[in-house]
Amino acid sequence: MMAGFGQGTRRHPRSRGRNWSRTGPDRATLGIIGVICAVAGFFVLGIILGPVAIVCGWLAMGRTWARSGPVPALVALVLGAIDMLLAIIWLAGAATPGSGLF
């Protein structure tokens, strides 16, 4: 009589829709973090925050170039690339001889 007790949970240990790993932040959170890093990178440490925004955007997109990806992930990827490019141009311009502050 008690032989079937608990058998349903052994066959389906997780509820439907919860079959992913919950060890890290989800894609929406990564997209928002990427956008914040990209916007902050325009003001400070663009050479560091730009690549961080690119990585967060890429991971939030699911590491694919799907057109139907989340908007914050795409925004983070594009702004991070622009941010990193501007930081590299700024560093290259600061490194040229004769272009000091005065």
What topology emerges from the helices and strands here?
Elements lengths: L6 H5 L15 H15 L4 H15 L10 H25 L7
Task: For the structure shown, list the relevant keywords.
single chain, 102 residues, mainly alpha, 4 helices, elongated
In short:
By secondary structure, the protein is mainly α. It has helices at 7-11, 27-41, 46-60, 71-95.
Strand content: under 5%
Helix count equals 4
| Helix share, percent | 55-70%
Oligomer: single chain
Average of per-residue pLDDT values: 78
Low-confidence stretches: none
The succession of helices and strands, N to C, reads HHHH
Rg measurement, Å: 22 Å
What overall geometry do the principal axes of the alpha carbons give?
elongated
What structural category arises from helix and sheet content?
A: mainly alpha
Give a quick account of the main beta sheet: strands, pairing sense, barrel closure. Answer: none
User: Span from first to last CA?
Assistant: 90 Å
Give the strand tally. 0
Structural overview:
Helices cover 59% and strands 0% of the residues. It is mainly α and 102 residues long. The protein is elongated and about 50 Å long.
